[in-house]
Specification:
By secondary structure, the protein is an all-alpha fold. The chain has one domain. The protein is 74% helix and 0% strand. Helix 1 runs parallel beside helix 2 and helix 1 runs antiparallel to helix 3. The protein is elongated. The model has no long low-confidence stretch (mean pLDDT 82).
């Protein structure tokens, strides 16, 4: 295994690591907004649901509107709103870092003979699935 192959593996694993942290952090913020909007106490234990019915109501696109509505209607104090907005900005920055990793992976994959000779034929438009194979190819 040469250093380029090792670096390909490292950057791929780093991408997934960044993605997991960003998603987990965003879900925590999303949960705070959801609990405030639905009047659920933070120490209240919720039943586990097989299917999350609230997920469509609290997408990233809807979240900021709900957050601002909570602030305007008195469901959240301005201090809490400000901290959540700071967390939101961190998530946006995290997404940018994640994108940088993705760009490097795309460069690596497009230069890789395994991709050019085989994987490109399987799924030419979607790098996402190909990334998951990189750590196992070498």
């Amino acid at each position: 295994m040469n250093s380029i192959e090792i670096l390909g593996r490292i950057i791929t694993n780093a991408y997934y690591d960044f993605q997991q942290v960003r998603i987990a952090s965003m879900n925590r913020v999303r949960d705070i907004i959801r609990k405030r909007a639905e009047g659920i106490e933070f120490n209240e234990v919720e039943e586990k649901k097989e299917k999350k019915t609230f997920s469509k109501k609290y997408t990233d696109k809807e979240l900021l509107a709900k957050l601002n509505k909570l602030l305007n209607e008195g469901g959240m104090c301005s201090e809490e709103h400000n901290y959540i907005m700071k967390c939101w900005e961190i998530m946006k920055d995290s997404k940018k870092l994640e994108k940088k990793h993705k760009d490097i992976m795309e460069d690596y994959i497009s230069d890789n003979p395994i991709y050019n000779e085989f994987l490109r034929l399987l799924n030419p438009l979607n790098y996402r699935y190909i990334y998951s194979y990189i750590p196992f190819l070498f």
